[in-house]
Write a structure and sequence with these properties.
The protein is 35% helix and 26% strand. The protein starts with a helix and ends with a strand.
C-alpha cells in the first residue's frame, strides 16, 4: 500500500460513522438557512432568480410540488449555460427539513473515493448536506436581502 493509499485509509477509518441524529441536525440547519435565503419558498411556484452585479445570478428552479414537500434546484447559470453547482434538494415543510438529493446530478460528491463502497447511506447524506450547508452560507453572504424575481 503506497503512502497516499495508507493516508486515505487512515483518514477514512479514523472518522466515526454518521448517525441519523447527525444527519437530521444538518437537515434542520439547512432548512433554517433556506428560509433566510428564500423567505417565501413555500409559496414559490415558478422559477426565480436573484440578479447580482458582482456575482453570478442565483437561480431557483421548481422541479416538483406536493402538499407538504417541494423539490427545487438551486444553481448558478454561467456564461456558457453550464449550471453549477446545480443542487437538487427536497424541502419538507411539515417536518422543517431540507434534504439534498443530488449535486451536479451526482448523489455522491467524491465518486473517486477509494473507500466509497464502505460508506453508509448516512455518510453519503452527510457529505451532500454538508456541501449545501457551506454553499448556503456563501449564498447568504452574497445574496441575502436581495429580491427574488420570477422568470
Amino acid at each position: 500500500m503506497d503512502l497516499d493509499t495508507q493516508y486515505l485509509h487512515h483518514l477514512y477509518n479514523s472518522r466515526q460513522a454518521k448517525t441519523y441524529s447527525d444527519v437530521s441536525q444538518l437537515f434542520e440547519s439547512n432548512y433554517q438557512k433556506i428560509l433566510k435565503l428564500i423567505p417565501l419558498i413555500e409559496q414559490t411556484a415558478h422559477a426565480s432568480i436573484i440578479r447580482h452585479s458582482s456575482c453570478p445570478d442565483l437561480h431557483l428552479i421548481v422541479e416538483q410540488r406536493f402538499a407538504h414537500t417541494r423539490i427545487f434546484t438551486l444553481t448558478h447559470v454561467l456564461k456558457d449555460t453550464t449550471h453549477k453547482p446545480d443542487i437538487k434538494f427536497k424541502v419538507y415543510f411539515d417536518a422543517q427539513l431540507v434534504e439534498v438529493l443530488s449535486v451536479c446530478n451526482e448523489t455522491v460528491l467524491n465518486s473517486e473515493h477509494p473507500y466509497l463502497a464502505q460508506c453508509s447511506d448516512l455518510n453519503i447524506q452527510w457529505e451532500l448536506n454538508l456541501f449545501i450547508e457551506r454553499w448556503l452560507d456563501y449564498c447568504l453572504n452574497q445574496y441575502q436581502g436581495k429580491s427574488w424575481q420570477m422568470l
